[in-house]
Amino acid sequence: MTSQTLNLVPFVDVDNMMRLVHAVGIERFLQELSDYVAEDFRRWQLFDKTPRVAAHSPDGVIELMPTSDGTLYGFKYVNGHPKNTRSGRQTVTAFGMLSDVDTGYPLLLSEMTILTALRTAATSAVAAKALAREGSRCMALIGNGAQSEFQAMAFRAVLGVDRLRLYDIDPEATARCRSNLARFGFEITACASAEEAVEGADIITTATADKLYATILSDNMVGAGVHINAVGGDCPGKTELHRDILLRSEIFVEYPPQTRIEGEIQQLDEDYPVKELWQVLSGQIPGRTDTAQVTLFDSVGFATEDFSALRYVRDQLAEHACYQDLDLLADPDEPRDLFGMLMRAAPARRSA
């Protein structure tokens, strides 16, 4: 994949992202994407790291998520507005860009609404592979909205999860999730409560959208040896787990300065000890150390994961032409003559 001229940037719109996922195959896409995510976590110390730049409002949040490994620069624009579903809009939408650090020129512009769902699920699976008990095959999915099927597919692709226990306060969401996943060979149980959903589960994934302190899981619902994948808490004032669960779990996070503001651990003291996922994946510290241990991945999403996703998509475009060239950059024949290029583009004067 090469652009013919410097002004053209490959653009992956929504249709092309869907084409790309189908061309690769969704399970292969998630498996390979998880490999990119894990690889970049192992390169963690190379990256510029900063908490996302957030603009909060009573109805939601708009965020910018930048990072660089010194060779490539990436950023994502993303929102989170739970009320949007009432007007037929997505709760989360996003787009992102990957650029060349050496020249500053963009290399890729991409939709990231679908891609964020894929990378969030891939990251969850990367963490669970390191933290869940070996042989974990049954997952409770509490919150059956837009993220739920992606989580199920990633856990299937990476860990071999084949049994799902679904619950949502909206039975229609559970029915839709069950229908969407039916053809992939899961054994699926629709549950009448969160308490029922966690029965017998090796992994509990919470992925709810309400922007408030909530108790999706209470302490008595979490048995020994369970791995919790807490996805829904992702901004100040929004959590899903009772504080007592945190106090008896081994907690793993992406980037502590961000997670302490946005994650489940915002409920704890600022110096409460947590472990970083990159240290587990790079072999510096152990993950799960006991089959009876409760492990918690306090997932809020971090810029390196979006970087990994953009990097993966760009690499796939060499084989799958699922993009269009976007005339994004002004590129005059003489780099210093931008004004001249503008004037030469004026329509010819009509003679009187």
UniProtKB/TrEMBL annotation:
A molecular function (GO) term: ornithine cyclodeaminase activity
EC number from the UniProt entry: 4.3.1.12
Chain coiled-coil ranges: none
Cross-referenced InterPro entries: NAD(P)-bd_dom_sf, ODC_Mu_crystall, ODC_N
Transmembrane segments: none
PANTHER family linked: KETIMINE REDUCTASE MU-CRYSTALLIN (PTHR13812:SF19)
UniProt name for this protein: Ornithine cyclodeaminase
The species this protein was found in: Pseudooceanicola antarcticus
